Amino acid sequence: MASPKTARKDYYATLGVAPEATTTEIKKAYRSLAQRYHPDRVSGEDAQQAVDRMVEINEAFAVLSEAKKRAAYDQARMAPSKPAEAEPASSGWEMPVEPTPAAAAATPQNSAVASTVSEDFLQKLKALIAQSGTSANLKEESERPWLWSFQGKTWSGSYTVSLRLCPTMNPNVARENVAQAQAMVKKRRSGWKNNFFLFILGFQSLSEGETVLKVFRAFCNQTDNSTARNLVNIVVMDMNNRRSVLCGKRSRDGNIDPVLAALSIS
What we know:
Blueprint: H1 11-15, H2 23-37, H3 47-64, H4 67-78, E1 91-92, H5 101-106, H6 119-132, E2 139-141, E3 148-153, E4 157-169, H7 171-188, E5 194-206, H8 209-220, E6 230-238, E7 243-247, H9 257-262
Parallel strand pairs: 4-5, 5-6
Antiparallel strand pairs: 1-7, 2-3, 3-4, 6-7
Helix pairs in contact: 2-3, 7-8
């Protein structure tokens, strides 16, 4: 397990923005986080945690808000690095089938992927989810800061499947991803259909894996996120070793089960 000191910091994840975010989006995210974590606004037992978060937020903003520093950071971020040892996963993850040529051809290339994981693998995963989500009527829709997102609706159900990549996964990055997932749930939750949300969070290196899983499981197991009416799952995926862990109550919805099966989640 790599220590937090040796793991490459993900400033984009710290601010909760995508790597291709504009300067305006970065400033907006910084202001929002600064208002939330400023020590003057937090008291009691959470005060020290707020101070620590503000240090991280300020560090990330100092780099990403300045063009030269951001360019140097992006260059270093794209450089290959030795992945840290991941926590043992509860089940193996392998690409079970190849997507059809038609589906693969319909999937656009995304140059941002190459900086973190194999673009070919990610495109296959995307095409596979599109195929397996046919009964849920999954259609791709752009949703920042998610790398890609699918939305689908049937007569009785509303479905969201979104993926985000984090070069390094740690508790702070996990909390930021939970905040992004919560925003998506709030935006997409239907008042009269059964709702299912699947968030796939890929990483290359991992630190404090047990704490990361606790953060994700606590979110998925909240009362509002763990009923048949409203169900949230997070799949934490080790992109190097093709292993994954499912957080949350297992769905029994026939429209979304094929997607979970495609991820080798039984």
